[in-house]
Amino acid sequence: IARAHMGVKGLVVNTAGWGVRGATVSVAGIDKNVTTSRRGEYWRLLLPGYNYTLTASAPGFLPSDTVTVFVAEAEDGLPVTATVQHLFLKPLPEEIVKERNYFPVNEKD
């Protein structure tokens, strides 16, 4: 049961610091993506002892920078916790928004 907390978790936020609802968090080499909560939270179970490459994306935003995280084994006697990694999204440039007919994203939604 303790291993259910092993992996990575965090927030996907915009440049104003608000969580991005419905963003997709991808792990390179794993076909199953996760979607953020209404507050921009995500959780992804991953095996310990490996590096993982994460990215986030959402409509109306540029993809996040790629981030590599290491999921460590829990130390003896200490609780199992997930590695915390926040991901940051920047809005698409205005000319791309107009070109693609995107509607503005509600920053607080």
Explain the overall architecture.
- The protein is mostly beta strands.
- 6% of the residues lie in helices and 32% in strands.
- The chain contains one helix and eight strands, in the order ββββββββα.
- It has one helix spanning 94-100; strands spanning 7-13, 24-27, 34-35, 41-45, 50-57, 67-71, 83-84, 87-88.
- The strands form two sheets. Strands 1, 4, 7 and 8 form a four-stranded mixed beta sheet that branches. Strands 3-2-5-6 form a four-stranded antiparallel beta sheet, with no helix packed on it.
Throw out a few tags for this protein.
109 residues, mainly beta, 4-stranded mixed beta sheet, 1 helix, 6% helix
Strand content: 25-35%
**SSE series:** EEEEEEEEH
Can you tell me the residue ranges where pLDDT is under 50 for at least 5 consecutive residues? Answer: none
Shape: elongated
The chain-level structural class is mainly beta
- What kind of assembly state do the chains in view correspond to? single chain
- Radius of gyration equals 15 Å
Termini separation comes to 34 Å
Task: List the total number of helices.
Answer: 1
Helix content: under 10%
- Mean pLDDT across all amino acids: 87
Largest sheet: 4 strands, mixed
Based on DSSP secondary structure assignment, what is the total number of beta strands? 8
